Every structure is written in C-alpha cells, then in structure tokens.
Amino acid sequence: MDEARLIDLETRLAYQEATLQDLNDVIAAQQRRISELEGMCRQLLERVARMGQDIFKGSAEDEVPPHY
Predict the structure, then answer these.
(1) How far apart are CA 60 and CA 66, in angstroms?
(2) C-alpha distance from residue 25 to each of 8, 29, 31, 36, 43 (Å)
(3) Tens-digit pLDDT profile for the chain (68 aa)?
(4) 3-state SS of the chain: helix, strand, coil percent to 5?
(5) Where are the domains of the chain?
(6) Given 6, 7, 32, 62, which is the most exposed site by the fewest CB atoms within 10 A?
C-alpha cells in the first residue's frame, strides 16, 4: 500500500469519525427535546382532563335559578 493511499484512508476515517460524533450529538439533543415535549404533552392532557371534570362538577351556586 503506498503512502498516499494510506493518508487518504486515514483522512477519510477521521472525517467519518467526526461526522458520526456530530450525528450522535444531534440525535442526543433531539432525544432530550422529544422527552421534554412528551412531558409537556402529558401535562397538557392532565390539565385538559381536569378542566373537563371541572365543567361537569358545577355547584348549586353556579346554576341559574328556575325563575330565570
């Protein structure tokens, strides 16, 4: 194997390793963001469920008297 070819292969390997690390960093950041968004969705679903329950709970004070 000649020297130029060896240098070319080593250069390609170095770029590939850098690219893989960059991609890994992006994937890790995306996973963190996905986890945050899933948590926010859970909180919103819980809030909407509580709001729905509150609508049907209504107290006697909230009801309009029959003469209206």
Answers:
(1) 12
(2) 26, 6, 10, 17, 27
(3) 799 999 999 999 999 999 999 999 999 999 999 999 999 999 999 999 988 887 767 655 666 767 76
(4) 85, 0, 15
(5) 17-50
(6) 62
